[in-house]
Amino acid sequence: MSNAAGMENRQITFDSCQENQQLVYDMLASARRHIRLYTADLEAMTYSHRQCIALLENAIRSNPAIKIQVIICQPRFAVSKQHLWIEFARRFTSFVEVRQPEEKYCKYGGSILLIDNKSYLKKRDTSRFSGIVNRADPLYCQQIIKEFTVIWESAETAQEFRRLNI
Question: How far apart are CA 83 and CA 161, in angstroms?
């Protein structure tokens, strides 16, 4: 089944670091309105690369109304590894918000990336590079967005990602 944009609604599996990175980068490049990410530790092997940050910056420059919401269970871990998202989030506070969820929402060891309410990339275990992606499944995305929103609304701003103005 194809949607109005001609994208086919089908799940694709991946199982390598290179595939994982390329799929994430392709999805980030297509973002126009909204990027949502739920992750335990920001998965440095995927998200802490200059190419990833350049794609995010380009999304902001191309789409000034874009919103980027990140839920991260272990923000201190990302800080200790000098993750590139930290400075990115600090520079683009008008577009990027990072929150730490209540502990009860950190039991899921996977991650999910949602783009524009239609595309998703889901991994059951962030220590592995396997998962599923679907570039045209707005119905499933709406279901996941409802869950994301519940977690988001009860989460607190991750202080580690805030810019210090001195």
Answer: 10
Enumerate the β-bridge partners of residue 135.
none
Give residue limits of the domains in the chain. 15-161
Q: What is the 3-state secondary structure (H, E, C) of 24-73?
A: HHHHHHHCCCEEEEEECCCCHHHHCCHHHHHHHHHHHHHCCCCEEEEEEC
What does the pLDDT average to over 64-90? Answer: 88
Q: Which two tokens stand for residue 94?
A: 């008008």
Q: Which residues, at least 6 apart from 128, have a Cβ–Cβ distance to it below 8 Å?
A: none
Average pLDDT over residues 90-108: 93
Contact at 8 Å (CB) between 90 and 70? Answer: no
Does CATH number 2.30.130.30 belong to domain 15-161? Answer: no
Using the structure block, give the residue that is written with the tokens 């490049």.
Answer: 29
Question: Which one-letter amino acid corresponds to residue 40?
Answer: A
Q: So what's the pLDDT on residue 113?
A: 98
Q: Is the pTM of this model over 0.85?
A: yes
Q: What is the mean pLDDT of residues 124-149?
A: 95
| Whole-number pLDDT of residue 78 | 78
